[in-house]
Predict the structure of AB-hydrolase YheT.
Amino acid sequence: MGLSFSSFTTSNIPTLYQAPSPAYLSVHSQDDPNNTERTTMTAFLETHCPSLFKPFHPAWWLNSGHLQTAYCVFGDFTKVDKIVYDRKLLRLLDGGTIGLDFTPPVSERTVKDDVPIIVVLHGLTGGSYESYVRGILVPAVTPKDDGGLGFRGVVVNFRGCAGVPLTSAQLYSAGHTDDLRQALIYISKAYPNAPLVGVGFSLGANVLVRYLSEEGNRSRLQSGCALGCPWNLVNNSDRLQSNWFRRQLYSKGMGGNLVKLLQRHLEELATFGPDSRLTAKLPELFAIKSPTLLQVDARVTSIAGGSSPPFPFPTAHDYYKWASSHHCLPDVQVPLLAINAADDPIVHEVPLEVGRNGRVVLFLTKGGGHLGWFESSDHWREVQRWVTRPVYEWLRATAESLVPDLERPRDIVERDGWISEVGRDNLGVKELANAGHVDGAHGDSGLLAGL
């Protein structure tokens, strides 16, 4: 069951969707933190995340989903939410490389090894520089004495994104979760006593939901937060393609971003040979002027967007059907907060029934666009992201107040210098190098940020 946004309520208070039968969570007692008590998901939210139940008023000059999304893409965020990362490059067993950006950097201040860690997954062609990522991480990693949470943050930059080298004939995708899985193995090995909570944006939200469903009760993340998740990729793609305006603006914008990302790695792509999964159809793709996202996914993502099997897929439609996350919600076993905007021009349908899973809640805001949620700040010329406050509250609550009801994750083992999990011989990760500092306020020039 999905939602047609034309029927959405006119209230500015986000609408809560949840399962008919409540789930009960174990939390530390507010009277005595050494004791635990049981509470429903709704009561947990009302107590710890009050911002979710307050109105969101879009800035008057950003009063539509298109304007909110455009500001996310074209707004200047270089002077706000400044952040610096320590980058670690990780080689994966299949030859691929991902980049983990940790903050705060070691040179800036020392953080205890057992403090909670926020694991962030960016959008389609983004990275740790994205303004929506920094907007969440900056207040979360700010020291408690300065009004923050004092947490550690780490952004998982997908293969080829945000300056990460492309070292195998495989990309990432909305459905492939092994790169996240291997990043979490590495993080858990480095910080075995730190609670891990996950936040995903757009494509990264889809990866997060699928990971949580696949891992079930043995998830290394004890909670998740999915922002702007595309959910039903088939229906959302059909809608983008059926509307001229959305096809020209959004589908071609996202498709163009993926083409530019690939073009930045032409030297690396040449080393894989013309007949590899990743390169075989690149000449055909590059010959298309302004390709849509569907055209890129048909020639690249559906073929090389993950390991084989299940890749390659016969068509982009087959890939979308497999990679969708709405049908995965029944298997999620940790508390999951999802927030979508009803006027999101990219995401048309959201799972109102939340998989009939009491651990999953979905909040829909009337406005906000795609990863926008901009509201007026105290200064009339400036805006701030409404979504920062409820996500901040959720991260604090699930990292500090929640008592996870999970089984022990698979044991981590080391084999010939590779870190992996018992029973998963196809996975393995090792640190290549500490790649130094990354200035989070400056991203990939030429790419449309926020998409």
User: Anything to note?
Assistant: The chain has two domains: 5-232+326-439, 243-323. Residues 374 and 385 are 5 Å apart (CA to CA).
